[in-house]
Amino acid sequence: MKAPASPPTKLAELVGASPAIVKVRALVDQLAASSVSILVTGPSGSGKEVVAQLLHQRSSRAARPFVAINCAAIPRDLLESEIFGHEAGSFTGAAKARRGRFELADTGTLFLDEIGDMPAEFQVKLLRILETRLVERVGGMLAFPVDVRLIAATNVDLAEAVASGRFREDLFYRLAVVEIRLPGLAERESDVPLLLEHFARHSERPRVGFTASATDYLAAQPWRGTSASCGTSSRGRLHSTPARCSTGRSRRHSSMARGTRSTGRPRCRRATIVARGATASRSTSRRCSTRSSRRISAMRSAGLRAASRGRHAYSACAGRR
Predict the structure, then answer these.
(1) I need a surface site. Which of 33, 131, 216, 248 has the fewest CB within 10 A?
(2) Angle at CA of residue 251, ends 248 and 257, nearest 5°
């Protein structure tokens, strides 16, 4: 089976110049060369997978596989097979053996996103793999050695989950050898202009951007979300707002070039009359053409009938003779 995620060909980019992002970037540079397990925390959409890709791309494993899996997005019944693999016939529908994500990420990096949502019975098996570096497939009798750099991420407070009994304490300390915390956008408001520029540059309309006044207005808004929400908002505005293109022509100029105002209404009453007249003339010409075709068909039919009657009359006369 082919790995679902190979080494990322596009370099990850952690956009921002705020003190919080500078600190995260420094931690990434410091930890990239090591093989310790890392726990990345922060709200959803703050860029946890970007940090994981940066750690992989700047490590000695950069040419090896980078395999990511979202523990919350896979059904509970399939999660164990997806992570650890299974042998043929181990359960209904398992027609052949399949390698899990640990085996696919061998010699590379495995990124377990939303680790806080992993069921308790799978946490025990994950802990054993971290201790022994051996993977046993579902329904299998043999264990396979793996060399994997593990990076986990969550938007859940794992310390609170440990206190409430929803997450194993020993697994928590195995995963969080080093913790990297990503801030929300409210903690890095100075990065909003840089994020807007980044998302505009990588949008489907790269020639359209934000003016200085639009950037100042958006930067002054109370951002309560994350960098992902900022990207969604900026892409929506780029596609729905009459932003000025790099060519210097606005949507009003392009609409006027088509003969309409910026509101979409015709420029004058005369244009409406001319347009209606052109439509009426086309309809009239189509009706005339249809009538002419019908007349020609009727004349042909009449001519054929007359010719047929003439042939029958000639045959009758010849018979009398």
Answers:
(1) 248
(2) 90
State whether residue 105 is helix, strand or coil. Answer: coil
Residue-by-residue DSSP string for 31-61: HTTS---EEEE-STTSSHHHHHHHHHHTSTT
Q: How many CB atoms lie within 10 A of CB 180?
A: 21
Q: How far is residue 317 from each of residues 267, 311, 314, measured CA to CA in Å? A: 76, 10, 5
User: CA quadruple 281, 282, 285, 286: dihedral positive or negative?
Assistant: negative
Using the predicted structure, report yes or no on whether residue 89 has a pLDDT greater than 80. Answer: yes
- Crossing angle for the helix pair 19-31 and 48-57, to the nearest 10 degrees: 40
Q: Which among 12, 8, 9, 35 is positioned nearest to 177, based on CA atoms?
A: 35
Model pLDDT for residues 32-88, shown as the tens digit of each residue: 999 899 999 998 888 899 999 999 999 999 999 999 999 999 998 889 899 999 999
Cα 28 → chain centroid: 25
- pLDDT recorded at residue 53: 94
The closest alpha carbon to 126, from 104, 108, 101, 107, belongs to: 101
- On the question of pLDDT at 119 being above 80, the answer is yes
* pLDDT greater than 60 at residue 296: yes
Which residue is it, tokens 């209404």? 265
- Mean per-residue pLDDT, 196-217: 70
In degrees and rounded to multiples of 5, residue 68 shows phi and psi of: -120, 145
Q: At what angle do helices 192-201 and 227-240 cross, to 10 degrees?
A: 50
Answer whether residue 274 shows pLDDT above 50.
no
Alpha-carbon span 174 to 157, nearest angstrom? 16
- List, in order, residues 6 or more apart from 104 with CB less than 8 Å away: 1, 3, 4, 65, 67
Residue 171: exposed, middle, or buried by beta-carbon count in 10 A (0-12, 13-18, 19+)? buried
- Cβ burial of 18 (10 Å; 0-12, 13-18, 19+) is middle
